[in-house]
């Protein structure tokens, strides 16, 4: 074998090795497939977090001002509204991702081929 042929074969081999290493590289978190249960839990957590934050703020203000639980009720409802709004935004984002067409290459990457 001559030297140019050997360097070509070596370059091809290095390219194949790099391609195979790229397949086994960890995928970014954003490209993971989420099951329906994971999406449902995400929405539940967003709703509960909004409620708890509103409850905590209202309770704290009632304690601070020494009032009847008027702030607790108001901020709990505001927290509920914020949680529902966040849930709706997440549902819209999921719907948008589901409606975008995927190419064959993206499907193969997702499946690990």
From TrEMBL:
Protein function? A possible function for this protein is to guide the assembly of the membrane sector of the ATPase enzyme complex.
Query: Keyword NADP, does the record have it?
Result: no
Which terms are listed as keywords in the entry?
Hydrogen ion transport, Ion transport, Membrane, Transmembrane, Transmembrane helix, Transport
Q: Which family does it belong to?
A: Belongs to the bacterial AtpI family.
Protein's name in the database: ATP synthase protein I
Which stretches of sequence are listed as region Disordered?
93-113
Q: Where are the transmembrane segments?
A: 39-58, 64-84
Q: Does the keyword Membrane apply?
A: yes
What is a single cellular component term in the Gene Ontology annotation? proton-transporting ATP synthase complex
Q: Where is the composition biased (Basic and acidic residues)?
A: 104-113
The record's Gene Ontology biological-process terms are: proton transmembrane transport
InterPro entries xref list: Atp1_alphaprobac, ATPase_put
């Amino acid at each position: 074998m001559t030297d140019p042929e050997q360097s070509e074969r070596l370059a091809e081999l290095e390219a194949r090795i790099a391609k195979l290493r790229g397949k086994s590289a960890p995928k970014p978190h954003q490209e993971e497939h989420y099951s329906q249960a994971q999406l449902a839990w995400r929405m539940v957590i967003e709703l509960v977090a909004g409620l708890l934050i509103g409850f905590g703020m209202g309770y704290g203000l009632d304690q601070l001002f020494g009032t009847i639980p008027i702030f607790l009720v108001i901020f709990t409802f505001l927290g509920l509204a914020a949680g529902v709004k966040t849930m709706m935004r997440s549902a819209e984002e999921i719907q948008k991702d589901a409606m975008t067409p995927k190419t064959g290459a993206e499907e193969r990457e997702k499946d690990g081929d």
